[in-house]
Amino acid sequence: MRLLIAEDEKSLAKALGVILEKSGYSADQVYDGISALEYLETGNYDGMILDIMMPGMDGLAVLRKIREQGSRLPVLLLTAKAEVDDKVEGLDSGANDYLTKPFAPKELLARIRAMTRNQAAGDSVLKVGNITLNRATYELSSSEGCFSLTNKEFQVMELLMSNPRNLIPTERILEKIWGYEGKTEINVVWVYISYLRKKLVKLKADIQIKASRNAGYSLEARDD
């Protein structure tokens, strides 16, 4: 299950990411409202942890924007405010739940489980061509067989399958999946693309991962 964390306190965002990943979730982190909207446009998420107080565009404005677009994405609001009116405004804007800082990790995880529990099973499956990616089990499959992907393989494949025929810059893949630290060599993206290409061949996929030199990768129909 993949979540988006939108929290302007970087230390808290990273701590939330660690908590979630230790509990089996995949999590992306952004630090302002505009970036949150950009990630929602290109990513496929099961839920969102959204701080109210953020620069540029606050959490409530982000929430109203995605609800206006018709998104039913489960959203957990984080707030430092304890006033009832603030919580009511958040719920009225379309939040599924709220959590007041500071909070215990166990409470956070319980709230996430509760708000995502009722998602339709179909939301956890991506299908492009004859290839299916199960977002709950990390399984990549076709009628020819099935592979269990590693966490990084899954994230790369999910990003490509969520944006078929769209060129995704290599730097964007690196940033979304390996984070903002700048410690990871860009060649690691090619390594994981190579792993996935081999699996697609074995699955006799009618889609392929195409590379655009010095630009990025896209998921396309096979030429043959």
UniProtKB/TrEMBL annotation:
GO terms for cellular component: cytosol; protein-DNA complex. InterPro entries: CheY-like_superfamily (IPR011006), OmpR/PhoB-type_DNA-bd (IPR001867), Sig_transdc_resp-reg_C-effctor (IPR016032), Sig_transdc_resp-reg_receiver (IPR001789), WalR-like (IPR039420), WH-like_DNA-bd_sf (IPR036388). Residues 123-221 bind DNA. Residues 123-221 form the OmpR/PhoB-type domain. PANTHER family: REGULATOR OF RPOS (PTHR48111:SF22). PROSITE patterns: OMPR_PHOB (PS51755), RESPONSE_REGULATORY (PS50110). Residues 2-116 form the Response regulatory domain. One of its GO terms (biological process) is regulation of DNA-templated transcription. This is Stage 0 sporulation protein A homolog. May play the central regulatory role in sporulation. It may be an element of the effector pathway responsible for the activation of sporulation genes in response to nutritional stress. Spo0A may act in concert with spo0H (a sigma factor) to control the expression of some genes that are critical to the sporulation process. GO terms for molecular function: phosphorelay response regulator activity; transcription cis-regulatory region binding. The keyword Transcription applies. The modification 4-aspartylphosphate is found at residue 51. Keywords: DNA-binding, Phosphoprotein, Transcription, Transcription regulation, Two-component regulatory system.
